[in-house]
Amino acid sequence: MRETIEATKGVADKTNKLSFSQFPGFAAFIKENHLRAYVDEVIRQSRRLKLPLLKLLESMPEEQLVKLSLESNMEFFQAAEDNKLAELLEVSTNKWINDQLEIIGQNDIVAEDITMVGYIRKISMLKFLPLYTNEPVTIIEIIKEIDLYDMEANLASTNTYINLLKDKIEKNAAELKRSEELYRQAQGLAHIGNWTWTLADNKLKWSDELYKIYHVEPGTEINYELIYAFNHPDDANRVTTETQKSIATLKPFDFYYRIILKNGTIKILHARGEIITEGGQPAQIHGTLQDVTYEQLVQEELQKKNEFINKIADTTPSLIASYNVNTGKYTFINKALEKILGYDPAEVIENGVTFFSGIVHPDDLPGIIEKNTKALEEANANPPADGNEMVVEFKYRMRHKNGNYHWFHTYGTIFDRNQEKKVEHVLNVSIDITEQEEAEQALQQKNLQLQQSNSSLEEYAYVASHDLKEPMRKIATFSDRLLRAEYDNLSEESRQYLEKIMNSAKRMQHMANELLGISIISGNKSFANTNLDEILHDVIETLEFKIQEKNVKIEADTLPTVKVVPGQFRQLFLNLLNNALKFTANKENPYIKIKAEYLSPKQVSSYHILHAEKYLKISIADNGIGFDNQFSNKIFAIFQRLHSKSDYEGTGIGLAICKKIAENHGGTISAYGVVNQGATFTIIIPV
Amino acid sequence: MSRSTKNLVFIVDDDPDDREAIRDAFRENKHDHEFVFMENGNKLFDVLSTQFSQTYPAIILLDLNMPGKNGKEILKEIKEDATLRKIPVVIITTSSSEKDRDISYELGANCFVTKPDSYKELLHLTDSIAKLWFTKPAA
After folding, report:
1. Is the dihedral of CA B60, B66, B69, B75 positive or negative?
2. Other CB atoms within 10 A of residue B76 CB
């Protein structure tokens, strides 16, 4: 320890100084003859003079106190006799400094003790001096030597005491410094600074943090005018008013205001302060300023977000409501309720869930309750590990305040759960789908009507063509009979007329037959897995005679097995091949190519095809007379002919049948032609 | 079954023109027979229910589309009757539908023909019918 080294310094000087001539004899005299009396005297004097140190010793028994005193004085007089008082002094001060004293603690010794101990020792010793000698020179010398020792002892003690004090002060100072640092740091962390404003001299004292908050050079002298200049123009008046009001009423103030720094930055400060009075008059203001810019911005941001959410919730055309499943109380309902259903949200929040069950259509209520109960049970039984709550959808009607029912589509989900992971709040978002629902119903109605009109159209076609056949047959039959019966009586011209009547009637009968065929195509839904390749080859076989006759080369891919109406595909191939054969008749090296491939939905663009995962495309191409491609759609119309009857036979209904068959399979047929080069017919059906 | 020299032919058809045309065609073929016209099924069964075997025809030419009992119902009744079922029934109808044809044969029709488009064809048809089902007149 530093103190030890200092105390040790100058021991040699002291040794010389405390080398006495008369005192050792006197010390030996007291030690040998009057030690007990001397101790008694010391104790007596200590009590009389109220030695502070004695208070510590008072608690011990007299006997022990005497014993302790005897020991220490014995030591003292022995040292004096041996002329070793300097050493003793050093040992004892060291003991003191190092807090090694018996019974007494280092800090128990106070300043009074130091002087008082020396005085008590002196007067106690002097009491025994007359018993030792009457020699004035010796007496004077002894007193001088005692005083000298006393002075040295006093000095050493005082030094030690001062050292101890200094040590203490330094320790305290360090402690204080640390406290101040902590305070400063705390102010820095909280962006809070404190200030004192003395009204008399208009001087302000700032803590370090305030300089930082205001970006002012630390140490700058602060006054009210200087900081007033920082105030945001919109807030300056308020700052003055608030402060003056506080001074006038002596009540504390607490407000927020903005300052503009030299670099233009705007900060939001929270000011708090109180008035310190002197004799009832305001003298000082103590206050704090906290930089709450960040907190305020966060707050503002939060408020903005809240406003945003509220705005969305209030302007959205959907009902948003959350309710507590345990209490049945609504915690939130947006304003849309008023717009959509005409009820005041506040009123509903008051009435709780029963309000909604009261306006749900009676036919829809049981279903909703059942579904909702089931969903809640499931949600309670299986809380999702990932927090993704299920969404349950409901479709039902609710009654508007005006009595009309509206259709709603509700998406319900778990808003939050309690600590047991059971559902607490449910959030429902409901969209008014009345218009869609009505449109859908209207569409269904239209669809139904269309189906009815379609089927009645088919029925009509069937009946018309069926009934058409009767009179046609009779025209043909009776013309025939007339011709036969009156053959000889008729002119050649008349006979020709009758022939024409008969032919026309026959032709019309044929057409009626085919119309009949068309009308029953879409009624036939007897789909079966069909090997198209077999069907195609059956058809080719049927046409074998014509094919050989016209020397047409036929190339065909192997066709797959798919689900179709077999008879219709037979007819389809027959019509298309017949068609191709018909128009390749006069060409050289005539051929017909049949290709098949699967298509993905991406490759199929037509809206007229039923949606499917996969499509089958079959194309039948020939190198016949072809047609002008501008007629590619027309050729599928009933009774449409592109070529004159005299050139090519046919009723003009074959392709219409093909189209009808493709449509009955949810597919399409298209044609592509180049005059004199050929035609390609393409069928695409979903498979 | 009684085999008179004259064959009895029942023509059940609601269309008088057709009844006559069929009869005329038979006659033109010089077949010896007696024709009974019936415009509906009730008339037919009125005759058949007398149960005189002499009144049983050599053949019934039956139309399908008729008011009241249609041809299929009449056919069914005939073919389900142990005695009557022996009478050959030829369906002569305007219908060319596969369905009508199949049902007729299933019900026991002996033949199904669509009414011919020309008289010439009708002559061929009636001739074939006579050759198949009529007893030859005694030489």
Report:
1. positive
2. 16
* Whether residue A122 sits in one domain with residue A260: no
Same domain, A282 and A333: no
The answer to whether the Cβ–Cβ distance between A477 and B116 falls below 8 Å is yes
Prediction ipTM score = 0.74
Name beta bridge partners: B111. Answer: B90
Whether residue A105 is found in the same domain as residue A21: yes
Tell me the C-alpha distance between A467 and A465, whole Å: 6
Residue B87 has pLDDT above 60, yes or no: yes
Does some domain include residue A346? yes
Distance CA B106, CA B102 (A): 6
Closest CB to A470: pick one of B24, B94, B116: B94
Domain of A377, CATH number, reads 3.30.450.20
Q: Which pLDDT score, from 0 to 100, does residue A669 have?
A: 92
Residue A398 lies in a domain: yes
**Look-up of token digits 């085999």:** B3
As a whole number of Å, the CA-based R_g of chain B is 14
B94 touches chain A (CB under 8 A): yes
A40's enclosing H/E stretch is helix A35-49
- Cross-chain residue pair B116–A502, CB shorter than 8 Å: no
Nearest alpha carbon to residue A568 among A663, A682, A633, A451 = A663
How does residue A559 score in pLDDT terms, banded at 50, 70 and 90? very high
B120/A480 CB distance under 8 A: yes
- Whether residues A134 and A9 share a domain: the answer is yes
DSSP tag of A31: I
Chain B CB contacts of A507 under 8 Å are: none
Report CA A251 to chain centroid distance, whole Å: 44
Q: Which chain A positions have a beta carbon within 8 Å of B24's beta carbon?
A: 481
Report the DSSP beta bridge partners of residue A416: A425
**Chain B interface test: which of A478, A480, A526 (most B C-beta within 10 Å):** A480
At residue A3 the predicted structure's pLDDT band, cuts being 50, 70 and 90, is: very low
A223 pLDDT exceeds 90?
Answer: no
Comparing CA positions, the residue from A555, A598, A597 lying closest to residue A580 is A555
Q: How far is the C-alpha of A130 from the C-alpha of A291, rounded, in Å?
A: 81
B124 Cα to chain A: minimum distance (Å): 13
- Which of A469, A470, A476 lies closest to B118 in CB terms? A476
pLDDT for B137: 55
A576 and A617 in a single domain? The answer is yes
Instruction: For domain B7-129, say whether CATH 3.10.310.50 is its number.
Output: no
Question: Which residue of chain B comes nearest to A514, CA vs CA?
Answer: B96
Q: Report how many Cβ contacts below 8 Å link chain A to chain B.
A: 38
CA distances from A391 to A323, A410, A413 (A): 16, 10, 5
| Count of structural domains within chain A | 5
Summarize pLDDT for A338-392 with one digit per residue, the tens. Answer: 888 999 888 888 888 788 888 999 999 999 999 999 998 998 888 888 878 888 9
pLDDT value of position A1: 42
Which residues in chain B have their CB less than 8 angstroms from residue A469's CB?
A: 94
Check whether residue A540 and residue A660 sit in a common domain: yes
Query: Are the C-beta atoms of A672 and A620 separated by less than 8 Å?
Result: no
- Interchain pair A477, B96: CB under 8 A: no
Q: Which of A480, A513, A516 sits opposite B118 (nearest CB)?
A: A480
Chain B positions touching A505 (Cβ under 8 A) are 117
- Whether residue B122 and residue A470 make contact (CB cut-off 8 A), yes or no, is no
Looking at the structure, do residues A374 and A459 belong to the same domain, yes or no? no
Answer yes or no: do A13 and A151 share one domain.
yes
Neighbouring residues of A369: CB distance < 8 A, sequence distance ≥ 6:
A357
Grouping H, G, I as helix, E, B as strand and the rest as coil, residue A227 is helix
Which of A203-207, A586-590, B39-43, B88-92 is the least confident region?
A586-590
How far apart CA B51 and CA A214 sit, in angstroms, is: 131
